[in-house]
Amino acid sequence: MSSSNLARWRNGVQYTRMEQPRGPSPLPAAFWRELRAALPADGLLRKPGDLGAYECDGLTVYKARPLAVALPRTRAQTGAVLHVCNRYAVPVVARGAGTSLSGGALPRTDGIVLSLARLNRILTIDPENRTARLEPGVRNIAVSEAAAAHGLFYAPDPSSQIACTIGGNVAENAGGVHCLKYGLTVHNVLSVRMFTSDGVLHELGGPTAEGPLDLLALVIGSEGLLGVVVEITVQLKPRPQAVVALLAAFRSLEQAAGAVSAVIAAGIVPAGLELMDHLAIQAAGAYTGQHYPPGTEAVVLAEVDGDDQTCAMEHAHLRAILDRQGAFAIDEARSEEERRRLWAGRKSAFPAVGRLAPDYYCMDGTIPRRALVEVLAGIAALSGQYGLPVANVFHAGDGNLHPLILYDARRPGELARVEQLGGDILKLCLAHGGTISGEHGVGVEKLDGMCAQFTPAELVAFHALKAAFDPYELLNRGKAIPTPARCVEPGGMHVHGGHMPFGHLERY
Amino acid sequence: MSDIETAGRVCAMVQAAYERHTPLEIIGGGSRRHFGREPLGEPLVLAPHRGIVAYEPSEYVITVRAGTPIVDVEAAVAAHGQVLAAELPRASGESTIGGAVALGLTGPSRPYAGSLRDAVLGVRIVTGTGQLLRFGGQVLKNVAGFDVSRLMVGAYGTLGVVMEVSLRLHPRPEEGAVRVLACDWAGARARLLDWAGRLPLTGACYARGLLYLRLAGRAATVGQAVREIGGEAGSADTFSAVRDLRLEALGVPATALWRLLVPPAAPLDPPASVADWGGAQRFWATEESAGAVHAQAARLGGQAMRLSGPDRHEDVWATPVPATMALYGRVKAVLDPRGILNRGRLSAMW
Predict the structure, then answer these.
(1) Which of B14, B55, B56, B146 to mutate to test the interface with A (most CBs of A within 10 A)?
(2) Is B133 in Cβ contact with A458 (below 8 Å)?
(3) Residues of A with Cβ-Cβ distance to B329 under 8 angstroms
(4) CATH code linked to domain A3-115
(5) Which helix (H) or strand (E) holds B177?
(6) Cβ contacts (< 8 Å) between B145 and chain A: which residues?
(7) Chain B contact present for A10, CB below 8 A
(8) DSSP string of A321-340?
């Protein structure tokens, strides 16, 4: 299979794949004239002072200054921007709120940023059909807020939900705390309207998220490589009648991990099932003032919801399992306020851990849940071996780990060791049948990890699919899918650290 | 034959067909060969490639070979108190998992437990050039690489020979019940809006003035829901029949069968259609032209998919605008550049 097979097809026109020049090159005045004409008067930023805010996303160690930032207000303007960039072969990086943790919205110095932040209208909320039609710049939490009047909510709730946008959620296939029960973005989006890089609008999906070929599934989680989504119809769900949260304290990490595996094996599908280890608890306790019982080595946070009766029964079942697995203290919360108290430590764990060391590197591997005990033990052993502390705070119910490697980038050689440790942890995940990224995306950060997860032939297929949508590689070029050539080059994981961007956001 | 040998054999067959530019018809159990456009080409029979590759009950995930009959998978997981997360239609005991993935259909549980596409976690496929590739995996959350696994679902085998599938499982509910209520469509919708999400529904169909409701969950919860719903006791067979597209008992003949996929609150039009999925899926048997059916679906705010019928020249779905059709064509060309796999089965274009 080669991309040349499909290269013959581009709206019926033959073309040959062209290599883009690397680095900035002067663009003709006509490009700027046309780009400005495509946008409202205040819709094009070119002054260095205005571009600073767009140089990076949530992964701040990578920075690049784009040539310009385009800020359309309408779908038509968005299409026009793409049309102009296509004509002049200018790379485009689409951007929502810029909260990606993997560099998904990192600009290119030879291209522009297309910010969809101003396409932020909730077009319709349809309580009869339980759907919402949204522009991409609508913030995630705004959907649930708007739907609340009808007793409905939008299920995917990434930790950055007060800032992150639905368009970005589609690009990253965002998850959150409740996806074990309610699914990821791909399970909750019915249809999208999307521009390909040539400025042509496509409609994918429908009232039941189906179509001749499921390009909708392909686009969701494609990290902005396949198109620019300008309208999204999502499924809304009825708010559960009852919710109960439990916080169970364990005297060892093994016990806590074993409890998670036992809950899953018992057939309970909690709305959320989270785990924090000793280091994470210490950090969270210091940060929020939340008290955990003395002797706590790990906690499991679980939440069940549903109708009153089911919730009560699941809760009793869950509690019994946690008891049996050795929980020595269990705290419970039913009201919204009490639950917020129980969740406080978990939701502030990332910034809290950020206080323990100058830098930390957040990983995102996912493993089968039965391997939790073994993989956590493996991570602890690696942590000791490298002499680098690792805090674990993660979506245990999904098997989605977030080991946080603490380090100090100013110490010579430490970055390299973090890099190696990170690579070893991902290899451990893959060896247990897992994946390198459960929800944060590959972006620029995990390109090398992709080489470990996929064969060259699979990577070639990904590139060919990219070319089917975007033959000139204008959209988010260089992200998400490494070239097979890169994979044979030596080098470990890319590492980030530094200060927590969006420090005010909850992170989980 | 080992998996490696089978894969080698399938790869070689596809490579040979690729070299000769000749199409292959992928056959699982052969029970749905009358679906889609007319099959073309030499048969590539997957039925012998059956059995479970990996099943760890505590993980609620199973990996099976494509030729495994659906009923065999159900029996294997039932032994551990589990069910497939998505309810799969079958024409017979021979209907295979691979065939189910190709068709992409999900039974009445779809609005409450998700679709087959939602439950597919990973696949191994042989592409139209004869390469064995693996996408997705056996974990619930996986965002590395494009989601090619789900792309296979409903593609009618036109994008790859599915060799192996990993599927999500659910715990088997403690108790089930079926209730039947006489009401008009508006009354049915009003009740569903009240009940969906609050009562443990796993199916809601409406046909000829009767609302059929299926419940499953904890015994006490189901008992309470039955009391609240009222009506009369119904048979689980109604839902198996709808799942398997045996709709004669509900007044829909098996000939020229269409699915209309619409917003669930859309009017029941034509009135003779059967509503499934709480209204989002309508079955309609009609001799009307494809154009007329697509127009009707569009009037309801949705789209239509042809399942079976004497006219096998029309595409399964309405033709999208040319630019989008070209995009489908380019995606097809990536995975099957010479149109070897199930050529013309889904669309006359490829």
Answers:
(1) B146
(2) yes
(3) 9
(4) 3.30.43.10
(5) strand B175-182
(6) 442, 450, 453-454, 458, 462, 480-481
(7) yes
(8) HHHHTT-SEEEEE-SHHHHH
Give the whole-number percent of chain B exceeding pLDDT 90.
Answer: 95
Reported confidence tier of residue A105, pLDDT bands at 50, 70, 90: very high
Q: How far apart are CA A144 and CA A508, in angstroms?
A: 19
| Candidates 3.30.465.10, 3.40.50.300, 1.20.1440.130, 3.30.70.270; CATH matching A122-238 | 3.30.465.10
Residue closest to A121 by CA, chosen among A134, A111, A130: A134
Nearest CB to A435: which of B137, B159, B264?
B137
Q: Does A4 touch chain B (CB under 8 A)?
A: no
Question: Rounded to 5 degrees, what angle do the CA atoms A252, A282, A415 make?
Answer: 95
Contact at CB, B198 and A458, closer than 8 angstroms? no
Q: What is the pLDDT of residues A34-77, one digit of tens each?
A: 999 999 999 999 999 999 999 999 888 789 999 999 999 999 99
CB interface of A with B, residues 369-388, below 8 Å: 369-370
Q: Does A200 touch chain B (CB under 8 A)?
A: yes
Q: Give residue B74's identity as a one-letter amino acid code.
A: E
B3-171 carries CATH number 3.30.465.10? yes
Q: Do A207 and B151 touch (CB under 8 A)?
A: no
**Tens-digit pLDDT profile for residues A331-350:** 999 898 999 888 888 888 88
Who contacts B227 (Cβ-Cβ below 8 Å, separation ≥6)? none
Quote the CA–CA distance of B308 and B303 in Å, as a whole number.
16
Q: Between 3.40.50.720, 3.50.50.60, 1.50.10.10, 3.30.70.2190, what CATH number should domain A242-351 receive?
A: 3.30.70.2190
Decide if B326 and A313 are in contact by the 8 Å CB cutoff: no
